[in-house]
Amino acid sequence: MPTFVIVHGAFGGGWEWTPVARVLRRRGHEVFTPTLTGMGERYHLGPWVGLAHHVEDVVAVLEFENLRHVVLCGASYGGMAVTAAADRVAPRIALVVYVDALVPRDGQTGLDLLPEWFGGVVRAAADEQGHGWVPIPPSVLPPGGLIPEAERARFVARLRPQPVATFTEPVRLTGAVVPLTRAFVRCTAGGLEAAGDPIAPMAGRARAEGWRYRELAAPHDPHLFDPAGTAAVLHELASTVSTD
Question: Could you tell me which residues are beta bridge partners of residue 70?
Answer without folding.
Answer: 3, 93
